[in-house]
């Protein structure tokens, strides 16, 4: 059998991997020697025009040149496999290499692997994969046959989701706004640190935190490290007393959610920055000696207070962890309309094309924070992406059903 030469039609996986390697090298060369020209797509309406132009080229190639070597190759299985491998390989790199930040490796910074979404290698991988996927879909779509519905929905949905996600990346806005109580704010900061003025203003009315009960642990006085290393979790909630920590049994005599240090004891107070405190009874299980003392987590206004058991060990209280936090806000539009709502983590508020998320707060002040950090996200292309995903799922279900039906027919045929 005569061996086929490289680049002899019809092309196979060998040429596919060569093309993939060539595009990867070309993308890296462009990135290194043209660092000022990032592969960024234009914003609306430029991205829409570019998308229509790309779609028009794909359709025109298939419609007018269906028998050409280029169209046959891009719609072939080897092209699909190699282009998908190229695309997925870069997607894996995105998960391995931290993106949108400087890398300690000069090589990664130079080749743009830490900013893959705006790199030339990713742009070429996208172009290769979407061209192959688009032409493969048209191959089953024209002429239309009912038996190809599942394949068409599956592949066209994937093509639509990936294409619109790429085109919409330039219109995606992800902003952070620092809102202080009683101060309406209409300025936010984007990921590049630039200040963006918004058509809405947000006023923080109240910020609330629900906290878990503080935890206690035993530390070594010499090193300041955790003294108990023979158990999986050396931290115990104050509400779990009595419990055992090393050679000590800890019991709680009194707990004050907000307390102030007066002399050598804590008293209940109701002032900003008053941390929790507890009076503990500790029994040394080795010599049965008991001791009583106070412990407090401290706050931005008060120093932590440790219960020194002996020369070796002390009990300390960790600052309470947030269980739930939320912001009561007022939104003021340019037209003067006012809306009041409550933002919670993972419960965004929708306003026009924006989604408002509760992001963070002043962790140093904790429940006394007068700052709430709100994230504002606007992605006008997301409906098209979702449409593509739904088509992809529908096509997968259709193919699954079709495969099940064929298998049952085969089983019935075998029984006859």
TrEMBL record:
Transmembrane helix is among the record's keywords: yes
One BP term from GO: cytochrome complex assembly
Domain ResB-like, chain residue ranges per copy: 296-365
InterPro entries, per the entry: Cyt_c_bgen_Ccs1/CcsB/ResB, ResB-like_domain
One Gene Ontology CC term in the entry: membrane
UniProt KW keywords: Cytochrome c-type biogenesis, Membrane, Transmembrane, Transmembrane helix
Keyword Transmembrane helix set for record: yes
Pfam families found in the cross-reference section: ResB
Entry's localization field: Membrane
Membrane topology summary: Multi-pass membrane protein
Transmembrane segments: 12-33, 45-65, 77-97, 117-138, 150-169, 381-400
Protein's UniProt name: ResB-like family protein
């Amino acid at each position: 059998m005569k061996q086929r030469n490289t680049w002899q039609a019809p092309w196979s996986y060998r040429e596919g991997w060569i093309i993939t390697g060539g595009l990867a090298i070309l993308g890296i060369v462009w990135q290194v020697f043209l660092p000022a020209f990032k592969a960024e797509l234009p914003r609306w309406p430029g991205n829409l025009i570019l998308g229509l132009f790309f779609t028009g080229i794909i359709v025109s190639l298939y419609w007018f040149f269906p028998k050409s070597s280029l169209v046959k190759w891009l719609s072939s299985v080897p092209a699909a496999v190699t282009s998908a491998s190229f695309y997925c390989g870069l997607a894996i790199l995105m998960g391995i290499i931290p993106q949108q930040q400087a890398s300690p490796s000069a090589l990664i910074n130079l080749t743009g692997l830490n900013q893959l979404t705006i790199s030339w290698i990713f742009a070429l991988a996208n172009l290769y994969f979407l061209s192959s996927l688009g032409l493969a879909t048209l191959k089953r779509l024209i002429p239309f046959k009912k038996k190809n519905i599942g394949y068409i929905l599956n592949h066209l949905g994937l093509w639509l989701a990936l294409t619109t996600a790429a085109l919409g990346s330039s219109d995606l806005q992800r902003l952070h706004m620092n809102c202080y109580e009683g101060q309406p704010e209409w300025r936010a900061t984007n990921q590049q640190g630039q200040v963006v003025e918004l058509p809405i203003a947000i006023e923080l009315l109240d910020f609330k935190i629900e906290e878990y009960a503080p935890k206690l642990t035993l530390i070594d006085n010499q090193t300041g490290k955790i003294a108990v290393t023979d158990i999986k979790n050396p931290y115990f909630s104050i509400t779990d007393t009595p419990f055992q920590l090393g050679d000590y049994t800890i019991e709680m005599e009194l707990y004050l959610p907000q307390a102030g240090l007066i002399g050598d004891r804590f008293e209940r107070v109701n002032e900003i920055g008053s941390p929790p405190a507890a009076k503990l009874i500790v029994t040394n299980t080795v010599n049965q000696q008991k001791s009583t003392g106070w412990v407090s987590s401290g706050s931005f206004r008060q120093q932590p207070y440790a219960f020194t058991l002996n020369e070796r060990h002390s009990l300390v209280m960790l600052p309470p962890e947030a269980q739930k936090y939320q912001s009561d806000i007022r939104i003021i539009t340019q037209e003067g309309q006012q809306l009041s709502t409550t933002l919670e983590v993972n419960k965004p508020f929708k306003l026009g094309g924006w989604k408002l998320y509760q992001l963070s707060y002043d962790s140093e002040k904790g429940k006394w924070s007068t700052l709430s950090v709100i994230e504002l996200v606007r992605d006008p292309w997301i409906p098209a992406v979702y449409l593509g995903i739904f088509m992809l799922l529908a096509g997968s279900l259709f193919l699954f059903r079709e495969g099940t039906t064929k298998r049952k027919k085969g089983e019935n045929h075998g029984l006859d």
